[in-house]
Structures are given as structure tokens and as C-alpha cells.
């Protein structure tokens, strides 16, 4: 299991741990693990990620595999590329919160147009969340 150490601004050492196992595509494993570590705070906002080539070499993967994972993470708002300065963990929680609030607003407007009561709309949301989080387990 490769471990990559990079210093963060406050001189703390943060370890990026990527484990490539059989099952999901390697780029998806890299994407999912970096995303989870960023959302959990294990990779703090502002953490400088390894270069595409550097991470690919450490993991024994093709550079295009890591580049695909980085593109997906950037699209999801988890990381941001700052040109030649590198790739950093973005304030993903803020982006995720904004997107969730937007989706909630759209749902609330749709539920009202459908004539649902507030309790019925909340029940539908609870059922959907329960199903989504059970599927993720």
C-alpha cells in the first residue's frame, strides 16, 4: 500500500493512503478514496495532492488513470487545479452543501406544485434518504 507524505501549510504531515484492490476500476478507487478522505477531513482543505505522474508512479498505475480520477474529483468540486501551482483539496463541504441546498429547494418547490403537505414531502425525503444510505452501506 503506497503512502505519500506531503507537508501542509501548518507543517503537519498528512498521509494520502490509496489502496488499489480488485473490483472497481482503479481510477474509481482513487477517486472514491481521495473524495472520502477529503470529506472526512483526513485530507484538509488546501492540502496539495501529488502530481498526476507522481501518484501514478507511486501506485503503479498509468498516468491517464490518475488524470481521469483527478478530472472527476475536480468536476465534483472535491479538488481544484491551480495551474502550475498544483492540485489542492477544495472546500468540498461548502460545494456539497450548496448543491444539496439547491436540490432541496428544487424538491420543495416541486412538492408544493404537486400539492403535497409538508409532512408528506418530509416523509418522502426520509424514505429516499433511508434507501440511499442503506444502498451505500
From TrEMBL:
Residues 24-92 form the HTH gntR-type domain. It comes from Streptomyces populi. Pfam families: GntR. One of its GO terms (molecular function) is DNA binding. This is GntR family transcriptional regulator. Gene3D superfamilies: Winged helix-like DNA-binding domain superfamily/Winged helix DNA-binding domain (1.10.10.10). Keywords: DNA-binding, Transcription, Transcription regulation. InterPro entries: Tscrpt_reg_HTH_GntR, WH-like_DNA-bd_sf, WH_DNA-bd_sf.
Amino acid at each position: 500500500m503506497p503512502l505519500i507524505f506531503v507537508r501542509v501549510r501548518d507543517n503537519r504531515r498528512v498521509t494520502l493512503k490509496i489502496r488499489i484492490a480488485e473490483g472497481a476500476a482503479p481510477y474509481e478507487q482513487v477517486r472514491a478514496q481521495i473524495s472520502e478522505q477529503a470529506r472526512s477531513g483526513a485530507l484538509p482543505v488546501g492540502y496539495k495532492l501529488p502530481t498526476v505522474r507522481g501518484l501514478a508512479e507511486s501506485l503503479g498505475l498509468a498516468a491517464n488513470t490518475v488524470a481521469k480520477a483527478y478530472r472527476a474529483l475536480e468536476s465534483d468540486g472535491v479538488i481544484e487545479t491551480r495551474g502550475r501551482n498544483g492540485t489542492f483539496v477544495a472546500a468540498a463541504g461548502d460545494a456539497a452543501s450548496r448543491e444539496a441546498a439547491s436540490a432541496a429547494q428544487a424538491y420543495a418547490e416541486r412538492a408544493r406544485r404537486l400539492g403535497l403537505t409538508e409532512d408528506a414531502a418530509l416523509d418522502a425525503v426520509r424514505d429516499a434518504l433511508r434507501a440511499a444510505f442503506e444502498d451505500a452501506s
